[in-house]
Amino acid sequence: MAGREKGPLTEPMYYVLMSFLRSEMCGTQISEFVDRKTAGRVRLGPGTLYTLLAKFQDEGFITETSVDGRKRTYQLTAKGRAAFEEDLSQAAVAQLIARLPEGERTVFTLRYFEGYNAKELGDMFDLPSATVRSRLASAKRRLREWIEE
After folding, report:
1. What CATH number is attached to the domain comprising 143?
2. In b/e form, how buried is each residue of 66-98, taking b as 16+ CB within 10 angstroms?
3. Which residue has the higher pLDDT, 68 or 88?
């Protein structure tokens, strides 16, 4: 943003930019997307939403693609996509990982953040290596699904 220091996006900013990843949207569609994506946890009132959209336009993150009466449709620019992707930080990944079932979360974290292999994890938890590999595959599948939602 013009007046903000470089740093992570706020949660509402993050979800508004995320809403544009697949297609252009109008304000109502953005609000519905954010509500659905966060299960109602993040609510965007019109004032907040349209303030963010104006800031994103000023910053070159989105561009207006059509106006039909009061309905305005926007799309993400390359600069906006870069800002969104830059903000896909460890915190965002950690939130997704935290949603995994405990057994999957534990082996995933130890495998990909601590470097243990399937055999070492199997020995650590008294599990066959095949079970560890199955939990890792399941965790990766869930994470991929959640990211694509």
Report:
1. 1.10.10.10
2. eeeeeeeebebbeebeebbeebeeeeeeeeebe
3. 68
